[in-house]
C-alpha cells in the first residue's frame, strides 16, 4: 500500500490540466516524475529530531 501526502495530491490535481493537454497533443505520451526535492519529500525522508 502506498501512502501519499496531501501536498502530493494537490500537486497532481494542479498539474492535471497540463498533463491532459499534452496527452491530447501527443497521443501515447508518457508523463514521468521530475525527481525534484521538495520540502515535503525532505521532511518525509529525514523527519524531525526527537526532542528527548
Note down, in words, how this protein is organized.
By secondary structure, the chain is an all-alpha fold. The chain has one domain (6-46). It is 54% helix and 0% strand. The chain contains two helices and no strands. The protein has helices at 6-25, 39-46. It is elongated and about 55 Å long. The relative contact order is 0.12.
How would you summarize the topology of this molecule?
Blueprint: H1 6-25, H2 39-46
Structure in a nutshell:
The protein is an all-alpha fold and 52 residues long.
Number of strands: 0
- Quote the average pLDDT: 80
Calculate the terminal CA-CA distance, rounded to whole Å: 31 Å
For the record, the count of structural domains works out to 1
The amount of beta strand, in percent, is under 5%
Q: Strand pairing plus helix content: what structural class?
A: mainly alpha
